[in-house]
Amino acid sequence: MNGDRVLRHRDTATSFVGRRRELADIARVFANGARLVSLVGPGGIGKTRLAMRVARLRADRGQEVVLVDLAPICSHGRLEDAVLRAATRGAEARGLPPRSFTELLGDREVLVVLDNCEHLTAEARRVAESLLTDCPGVRIIATGREPLRAEGETVRHVEPLAVDSEAEGAGGHDNQAVRLFIDRARLVRRTLDVSPSAVGDVRRIVRAVDGIPLAIELAAARARMLTVHEIADGLNLHMLSATRRGGDARHRTMSTSLDWSYSLLSIPERVLFRRLSQFRGQWSEEAAIAVCADDDLPPEAVPGHLRALVAKSLVVRRETPLGERFRMLLPIRDYAREQVYSAHDPAVHPVAGVPSADRHLRYYVELAERADAAQWVLDFQGREELEDASANFHAALEHACAHHPEDALRLAAALGFYWRVTGRLTIAAEASARALEAAPGTPHPARAVVLANQSALLFWLGNVSDAHAYAVAAVDSASLTGDTRARAHALVRLGSSLAATCAREAQTVMREAVDLARRSYDPVVLGDALVNLTLSLMWQEDYTAMREAAEESASLAYIFGFDYIEALTLWCQAHEARARHDPARARASAERVLELTGGDTPGRGGCDVRTFCHNGAVQILALTAVDEGDPERAAALVAAELARCESEPVPWGVGVLLHARGCAELAAGDNAAARATGMQLYERERGGSAALAWRGLEILMRAALAEGDTAAARRHAEGIRILARDLGNRVAEATATLGTAHADLAAGDAGSAEMRAREAFGIGLAARMPAHAVAALELLGEIAVARGRPAQAACLVAAADASGGAVREPYRQAAYAAVRGAIDTALDASEREAAYAQGAGMTLDDVAGYLRRTRGKRVRADRGWASLTATETAVARLAADGLLNPAIAERLVIARATVKVHLSRVYAKVGVANRTELAAQLRAVPPT
Questions:
Q1: What is the mean pLDDT of residues 237-256?
Q2: Which helix (H) or strand (E) segment is 465 a member of?
Q3: 770 with 844: CB under 8 angstroms?
Q4: Of 559, 535, 590, nearest to 727 (Cα)?
Q5: Which of 570, 683, 769, 862 is most buried, taking the most CB atoms under 10 A from its CB?
Q6: Angstrom distance (rounded) from CA 115 to CA 117
Q7: Beta-bridge mates of residue 139
Q8: Distance between CA 723 and CA 732 in Å, rounded?
Q9: Cα-flanking dihedrals φ and ψ of residue 264, to 5°?
Q10: DSSP code of 865?
Q11: CB-count burial class (<10 Å; 0-12, 13-18, 19+) for 318
Q12: What is the dihedral sign for C-alpha 609, 611, 614, 616?
C-alpha cells in the first residue's frame, strides 16, 4: 500500500498519545463530505503526528495513503512531481516516470497527506485543488502554519496538549501532556520515577512549555542525565529568563524550550547541531562527516555527537532500505539556522576553514558526478540513492548559483541524465536555466553539457525552436573548451534537432558525435548519438543504412539498460519490418516498445521520450492492422490514444498517431475524413518535422486521387517532392512520383504515367522497399492494360501478388479488379495462365530486367520542353537535381548508355549545353 513504509517509520517509531477528540473530529468532518482538511498551528504543536495518526488509522482499514513531505522541497514547481512520485513507488522500481493525477489515481479512494506546506502555500493550494478536481476519490490532509485558503477547505487549529486534569489516564497520569512526557522519558530511562511528587514536577514541566508536544519531547530527552525535578527547575529558570521575548506566546514558548535544550549541549554538540542545518530532508552519517567535520570537530567524533543529538530529540534517526538516515524536524532546523549566524561558527564564517555550506555543496557535487559517471539512475539501488539525496542536490544548487557559479554548472550537468530518465523535465529545465544564468559565458565543459541537456529538455517539453537554439549554443560553448565529451553531448543535441527536418545534415553531425563519444568512453552520449543517427536514417527511410546503427544502438541499450534507447530503436526497426513486408516482426517490436513504456498507458503524459515511443508503437500496430485489411481496428487503437493525448500538456507523438489515423480512413474509404486528418497532420508538422509533414501531404494526395481531383493530387505530390529533397528521402520522392503517375493515367497520359511508375519502381527496388515497388508494379499493370499490352499487365500483376501484393484503398481495389477483368477479356485461358505463371515466378529484381526488355514505343519530338518524351522529361529532371548517369539509370531502370542518349536529345531539344543550363531552364520553365 502506498505510504505504508513511510507510515511505519514516521508513525510507529514512538507511541501516539492523546488527541482523541481531534481524531474523532477529523473523522466526522470527512464523513460529512469534506475532502480537504488543513491542520494549522505553530511549529512543534503536533500537526504532523496528528496527520500521520489519521493516515495510519485509515491505512489499517485498507485505504490507500499517499504521504508527501514538503519540508525538503526548496523551490516552486517540484510539489506536483513530489506528489506523483509518492503515489508511484511501484512504478519507480521499473524506472518509469510518474503519470498525471487523473491517470494515476483515477476515482480510487485515496488519502493524500501534504505535510509542512507553510513555505509553499500557494503551490500546495494549486496542487490540492487539482487533485480534488481531477480525482473524485481523493481526500487531503494538509499541515502548515497557515491555511491553504483553497476552495472547500476545512481548517482545524491544532491546540497544545491539555495540561489540566482530564480523567483520561490512571495512576495520577491524568492529562495528555503528562502522559506524553512520561512515555518519552521512559524511552531514555526505564526506571523513571513516577511517584506523586515526581508527577507533580512533570506537571510543572508541561505547564512551563505550554503543553507543546515537541517542547515536551525535548524536555523528556533530558531524563537520561537529569531527574524530573532537576529538569523542572532548570526549565522553569530558563522560561523566566526568556519572558522578555515578544511575539506569539506559543512560538515564544517553543523557542525558549529550544534555547534550553541548546544550552545543555556540549560545545562540540552545538557545533554539529548548527552545521547539520545545512541539510535539506535526510542525510547519511557519511554525509554528516563530510559536511560537518573539521579540525574543531574531528571526523571520528561526528558519529558519537550525532547520536547524542538523536538521544536529545534534536535529530530524528530512522532505518531505510539504504541504511541509517537522519533528519531535523522543520522547527528545529529553523532554530539551528538561527544559531548559525549568531554563534560565529568558524565553519560558517570562514576564519579557520571552508564554510559548511560550501562543504555541503562540494559533497553533493562530487556525489552527483560520481553517480553520473557510473549511471546510478539506471540501477534501482542507485536511483534510490539519488532520490534520497534529491532535496540536498537542490539546496546545493541554490547555494552554488548564489556563490559558486561554476559548481552550479557542474552539478546541473551531472544531474541532467538523472532528471531526464526520471521524467523531471520541467524541474530540470528550471534548474538548468538557473545554473546557466548564474554563470553567463563561463568557458567550462560543464556549461556546454548543461546547454546540451537544456536542449534535450526543451525538445521533449515541446519547445523545439528554443531546443535548436540551445543546441547551437552548446556546440559553440564546447568549441571554446576543446572538451571531447562536451562536444559529443552538444553535437548529439544539434543532430537530434535536425533529424526530422534535415536528415542528411543531421547524419553528418551525428556520425561525428558517435566518434567523439567513443573516444570519451561515455556510454550515455554514445547511446544518444547512435539512436539519433538511427532516427535520422529512419526519417529518411534509408533502412539499409539504418540497420548497422540500429543494431549497435540496440546492443548498447541492452548492455547498459537504456530502456528509452531500446524503445526508440525498436520503433525504427518496426518501421523497417513493415516496409519489408514483415508484419509479424513489426508487431513484435511494437509490443516490446509498449512493455518498455509502461504497458497500455505511457509514462507521465507527453513529457518525455517514453510517451513518444508509446504513441509510435500504437502507430505501428495501427498501420499493421491497415496492411492486414482491418482499418476499423486501426482506427480504434488510434482513437483511444488521441483521446488520452488531449489531456496532456505536451502531447508528443500525436503526429505519428494522425498518420496512422489518416491511413486507416483511406483504407476504410472515408476520403473526407482522411483529407481532414491529412491537413491537420501537415499543418501541425510543417514547421517542425518534415518527415511527418510529407506524410500529411501523402494522405491528402491519396484522398484527392480517390476523389478524382488530379490537380490537387499533383499539387500535393509536388509538395512531397520539395520536402523529400530537403530530407534526402527517396521513398517520399517515389511516393510523389507514383502519385503523379496515377494523376497522369487518370488524365489520359499513359505514356507519362508509365515513365513515372517505372521511376517509382526503381526507387523502391533500390531501397529494398518491396511495398513501394509492388505498388508501382500494380500501377504499371494498369498502364499496360491502358496501352494495349494485356500479357505484360498479367505478368506484372502476378509478380506484384507474388511479392506480397499492395495495400489498396477501395478505389484502388476497384481499379485492380478492372485490370483483372480486362486481362481475362483480352487473353484466352492458356495465354493468361502463361503470363500469370511467368510473373508469379519473378523476383522484384527479375521484374526490373523484364521492364528493361519490354519498353513501349518511343515518341519522336521536335523542339522545346513540350517535345520531350516521358523518359526524356524524367532524365532531365533527375539530371537537374544533380544525379549522375549511373544513378539516373538505376532510378529509371534503364541502361547507362540509354541515359546518355536521352540526355543528348534533351540538350538538343531544349537548347542547352550542359547540366547547369538545364537546371536553370527547368527552374524557369518546368515541363508539364
A1: 52
A2: helix 464-481
A3: yes
A4: 535
A5: 570
A6: 6
A7: 111
A8: 8
A9: -85, -5
A10: G
A11: middle
A12: negative
Task: State percent of the chain over pLDDT 70.
Answer: 88
User: Alpha-carbon distance 99 to 111, whole Å?
Assistant: 18
Q: Which amino acid is at 919?
A: A
Q: Answer yes or no: are the C-beta atoms of 85 and 390 closer than 8 Å.
A: no
pLDDT for residue 77: 61
**Environment class of 63 (CB within 10 Å of its CB; exposed 0-12, middle 13-18, buried 19+):** middle
**pLDDT tens for each residue of 660-715:** 999 999 999 999 999 999 999 999 988 778 889 999 999 999 999 999 999 999 99
Give the list of residues 6+ apart from residue 296 with CB closer than 8 angstroms, or none.
268, 271, 346, 347, 352
Q: Three cell numbers at 829?
A: 485461358
Amino acid letter for position 4: D
Predicted confidence (pLDDT) per residue in 550-608, tens digit? 999 999 998 888 888 999 999 999 999 998 889 999 999 999 999 988 754 433 333 46
How far is it, in rounded angstroms, from Cα 671 to Cα 844?
Answer: 31
Give the torsion through C-alpha atoms of 510, 429, 539, 486, to 10 deg. Answer: 0
Q: Pairing between strand 110-115 and 316-320?
A: unpaired
Note the pLDDT tens digit of each residue in 756-777: 999 899 988 887 888 888 899 9
H helices of 747-789, in order, are 750-766, 770-786
Q: Is residue 928 predicted with pLDDT exceeding 60?
A: no
pTM: 0.73
The 3-state DSSP class for residue 860 equals coil
73, 612, 857, 898, 906 from 863: Cα distances, Å: 79, 54, 19, 20, 9
Mean pLDDT of all residues belonging to the chain: 84
- Please give the Cα distance from 864 to 906 (Å, whole number): 9
Phi, psi of 141 (to 5 degrees): -115, 125
C-alpha cell read off for 301: 567524533
Compute how many other C-beta atoms are within 10 angstroms of the C-beta atom of residue 508: 14
Q: How confident is the model at residue 238, as a pLDDT?
A: 55
Residue position matching grid coordinates 574543531? 296
Q: Given this model, what pLDDT does residue 252 score?
A: 57
Contacts of 848 (CB under 8 A, 6+ apart): 761, 762, 765, 893
State yes or no: pLDDT of 349 exceeds 50.
Answer: no
What cell numbers appear for 814 in the block? 476497384
The dihedrals phi and psi of 783, each to the nearest 5 degrees, come to -65, -40
- What is residue 1's predicted lDDT score, i.e. its pLDDT? 41
Of residues 68, 66, 77, 65, the one with CA closest to residue 120: 77
Q: In what order do the strands lie in the sheet with 323-327?
A: 282-283, 323-327, 316-320
Residue 392 near residue 365, CB atoms below 8 Å: no
Residue 364 has a pLDDT of: 97
Question: d(Cα 21, Cα 26) in Å, to the nearest integer?
Answer: 9
Q: Are strands 323-327 and 282-283 parallel, antiparallel or unpaired?
A: antiparallel
- What crossing angle do the helices spanning 583-596 and 563-579 adopt, rounded to 10°? 160
Rounded to the nearest 10 degrees, the angle between the axes of helix 810-826 and helix 829-840 is: 130
- Nearest-angstrom CA–CA distance, 85 and 424: 10
Average pLDDT over residues 73-101: 61
pLDDT digits (tens, 9 = 90+) for 911-920: 888 888 888 8
Name the amino acid, one letter, at 553.
S
Alpha helix ranges (H) inside 153-294: 176-188, 196-208, 213-220, 228-241, 249-263, 267-276, 285-292
**Contact partners, residue 173, CB within 8 Å, separation at least 6:** 179, 182, 194, 199
- Determine which of 297-301, 468-472, 505-509, 704-708 has the lowest per-residue pLDDT on average: 505-509
φ/ψ of 868, rounded to 5, equals -70, 140
